[in-house]
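Researcher: We're teaching a course module on how sequence relates to structure. For the next exercise, students receive a sequence and then see the predicted structure as tokens, so they can try to spot secondary structure elements on their own. Here is the exercise chain.
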Amino acid sequence: MTVLQMLKPHAGLRVLITGGASGIGLVMAQAFIEAGARVHVCDASQQAIDALQKAQESVELNRITATLADVADRAAVERVFVDVQAELGGLDVLVNNAGIAGPTGGVDELDEQEWNNTVDVNLNAQFYFARRAVPLLRQARDGGTIIALSSVAGRLGYAFRTPYAATKWAVVGMTKSLAIELGPSNIRVNAIQPGIVKGPRIERVIAARAKQLKLSYEEMEKQYLAKISLRRMTTPEEVAATALFLCSPAGSGISGQAISVCGNVEFL
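Model: And here is the predicted structure for the students to work with:
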């Protein structure tokens, strides 16, 4: 196998992506499909799933299958794995992608339920999916892979976004611990830390932060870009390409790492 050939994941990988019917998750799902994988996603939005299925009406092979599920609901997680077994017959890759932005505000202003909800979706759900996926990943022919979506906020402090940052730091801790624990079972575990990624989600985040600081959206966006060495946002495709690399033979020696795909965000 040449170095160039090593950069492409093996065809036929069985992949589960949480929060995979829209945003970065959908771009990753489509990228895995293009690489010859079989992909199942779960998502909390029936509207997003319906849109995904409508977009695939003309696709005959390698359709992305989906389950409606709140990732923080353990019963829903069980239903996802029933569907994974039925659709894929096993699992080679888990991408723990689902997450929420959480509230914006000072620590003395935060609502306890919003804090708990952020922890449930961004952290507890990753545990629920990992614990159910590991027995399947142990049976993967070429070894299993877990990719956890953290954030650049998982390596930097983030004022007024404490719940989000706290959970994304915790994801890195879980990643490094699971890499040590599961390495002997030939399961690699890594985290991707996206930065400021183009799309509707970051637009909502910038708007909320602008309101908090009483600035215009344009001024707030300018301040966000000034924090990035490359002075531009990351694209969802760049994040997806990193996920494919980690699942390729070229990434087979990488485990326990938190990889920033962010244009080098210097501070938040």
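Model: If you want an answer key for the exercise: The first strand starts at residue 14 and ends at 18. The chain has a mean pLDDT of 96.
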